[in-house]
Each structure stands twice: as structure tokens, then as C-alpha cells.
Request: fold
Amino acid sequence: MHRTFVWTAAILVLMWTTGLAYSAPLAKTPDDLIRNLIDAAQQGNTDDFLAGLTSSSRKAVADSFLRQRELDAAQQAFQQALDERFGKGAPTLPSSPGDLKSAISRLAGAELVEKVPAPGGGMKLRVKTSVKGTGGAVATRDETLLARQEGGAWKLVLVSPPEKQPGSKSIVEDFTKKLKAGEFKDRMAAMIALDNALRGTTAKKAVAK
Reply:
């Protein structure tokens, strides 16, 4: 299965750090769309990059990031409770999305190698994407994207907007309460218990699909 991780990650970071004002060149063809997105990424032009996304996809991403912010706040409260009970320790939380220009600069290039008509007048695009990794190394991967026309221009569609485990926030909040109530003997026990609970949520979600 081709993944859209690279494109989705870049869009997520952009939604986290910019507003919703767009003024990109109109993409009259799917080729134009991919070209415009890469040009915008390489120039650090966040408005133009986001302008290549359908309005419904932008909303879905914004909703996803709202859930992520709420989860981040719950995780920070858990971290604080750990430090208050067991003393200051190494951070256990993942870092927040980085600088937006750094994120989109990972997209070093893209070549549209195949276009296949999709239901509803859309177009499936097979794109060979070049991505910068650590140390400046560039890796190339095939990704399948979906595009459709909106407002007289071709736009990128997020087929499955990323979800941030809707139940995770309540799980973290519950473990923070348990931590403050003294239910864990040490920092490691609390961290492992929370990790197992979150992994269980992910596994159940995967089975449900």
C-alpha cells in the first residue's frame, strides 16, 4: 500500500503554524498541482502550499490538530504530575511539530508518473516523492495521492485525514488522576502503564477497521 505520510505530515505542521489565507497559482491540471505544491514547499510559501488542499481536507486537518492540542495538554499535565510525585525526570513527551519551513523543506521534489481517473471526477496520482532525511540524505518513495477539481482548480484530497486516537486524551487524564492518588510505585511503572493503555487503544482501533 502506498502511503501519504510525507505529504500529510507537511500539511499537518502547516496547519499548526499558519492561518487560513491562501493565494496560490491555479492548478489547471494535476501536473500543475504537484508542481505548485513542490514549488511552494521549496520556497517556504505556506499559503500557496495550503491553497493546493481541498477545503474539506483543510477542515479535517484543522479538527485533527485541535484534538492533538487537547491531547498535548493532557500529556503535559501527566508529565507535571510525574515530576511532582517522583522528582524531576527526563521528558517523556514527544516534541511538538517543528518549524514549518523545516517541515516542508523535507519535500525535495516530486514527479507525477501516473494519472488514473477516480470515481466522482477525481484523479488518482502516483507520485515519486524525494524526501530529505537526517544528514541531508534524500530518499525516494512512491505515494498514491487523490486530487479533484474545486473552484476551477485541481486540489489535493486527504483520503484519510490523520486521527489522533480520540480516546487517548481521556486515558491520559485518567492516568494522571491515578498518579496523583498514589497508585504507582515509581515513575517507570506509571509510564509503562500509560504506554500499555494507549497501545491497547491503538490495537482495538486497528482490529475494528
About this structure: The chain is about 50% helix and 20% strand. The beta strands are 107-118, 122-132, 138-150, 153-157. The longest strand covers residues 138-150.
